[in-house]
């Protein structure tokens, strides 16, 4: 049994939607916090960044829909996986409101684990239903999901592009990496398959089987 666990922002989408939203609603203010990401962890980075945002849920979803671009190779990749009986799941450090909205708009039905956003007027607060209680570095524990799937008998391929993808990448059986994740894999001497889009991932999986 094979499972593909994928990051969402900048992996399934062309750009990081959370970052596009931060840029839209805070200008460059979030970038100063983002520079601390690797040092203070994803959970604290998100908390500080989204505390700067003043936008209602409707404004956030409208902007997400306008700004987000799906990797066009992802839907055919998903069809390939369904044909091959490969389980596909998303693990994300974004949040539920825009993931649900975008996946629905794009007609994609995929289980996902992400942070939960609650909106109070123009304030957003994130909580972490899939956080690891013993580690506060991340919001969503992506590595924990790799371990759970493996315990259920899956070989797990991980696909990602960012800092929050390094923990699951270190535990996965096969890693597809680009951008910051590729750099971190090199730093940790973690072997990976470089990819640009899900066409590359599909070819890599076909070889792996
Ligand atoms: Mg990402």
Structure summary:
The chain is built from 11 helices and 7 strands.
Write the layout of secondary structure elements.
Elements: E1 2-6, H1 17-26, H2 29-34, H3 37-40, H4 42-50, H5 57-67, H6 74-83, E2 87-95, H7 96-105, E3 112-120, E4 123-127, H8 142-151, E5 155-160, H9 166-171, E6 174-177, H10 179-187, E7 193-194, H11 198-208
Parallel strand pairs: 1-2, 1-5, 2-3, 5-6, 6-7
Antiparallel strand pairs: 3-4
Helix pairs in contact: 1-5, 5-7, 6-11
This protein binds magnesium ion (MG).
Magnesium ion binds at residues 7, 9-11, 16, 160-162.
Ions, cofactors and other bound molecules: magnesium ion
Number of helices: 11
As a percent range, the share of strand residues is: 15-25%
Low-confidence regions: none
Number of self-contained structural domains = 1
The CATH topology is given as Rossmann fold
**Given the C-alpha coordinates, what overall shape results?**
globular
Structural class by secondary-structure content: alpha/beta
How are the strands ordered across the major sheet?
4-3-2-1-5-6-7
Describe the main β-sheet briefly.
7 strands, mixed
The multimeric state of the shown protein is single chain
Rg (C-alpha, Å): 16 Å
Order of helices and strands: EHHHHHHEHEEHEHEHEH
The CATH homology group name: HAD superfamily/HAD-like
Tell how many strands the DSSP assignment holds. 7
In CATH, the architecture is 3-Layer(aba) Sandwich
Average pLDDT works out at 97
Distance between the termini: 10 Å
């Amino acid at each position: 049994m094979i499972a593909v666990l994928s990051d969402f922002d900048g992996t399934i989408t062309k750009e990081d939607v959370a970052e596009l939203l931060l840029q839209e609603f805070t200008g460059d203010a979030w970038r100063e916090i983002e520079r601390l990401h690797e040092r203070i962890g994803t959970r604290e980075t998100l908390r500080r960044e989204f505390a700067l945002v003043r936008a209602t849920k409707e404004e956030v979803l409208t902007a997400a829909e306008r700004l987000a671009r799906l990797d066009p190779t992802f839907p055919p990749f998903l069809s390939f996986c369904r044909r091959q009986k490969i389980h596909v799941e998303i693990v994300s450090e974004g949040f539920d409101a825009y993931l649900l909205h975008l996946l629905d708009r794009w007609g994609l039905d995929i289980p996902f684990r992400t942070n939960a956003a609650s909106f109070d007027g123009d304030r957003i607060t994130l909580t972490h239903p899939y956080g690891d209680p013993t580690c506060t570095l991340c919001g969503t524990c992506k590595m924990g999901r790799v371990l759970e799937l493996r315990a259920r008998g899956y070989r797990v391929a991980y696909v990602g592009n960012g800092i929050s993808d390094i923990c699951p990448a270190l535990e996965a059986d096969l890693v597809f990496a680009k951008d910051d994740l590729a750099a971190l894999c090199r730093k940790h001497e973690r072997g990976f398959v470089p990819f640009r889009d899900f066409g590359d991932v599909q070819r890599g999986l076909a070889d792996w089987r």
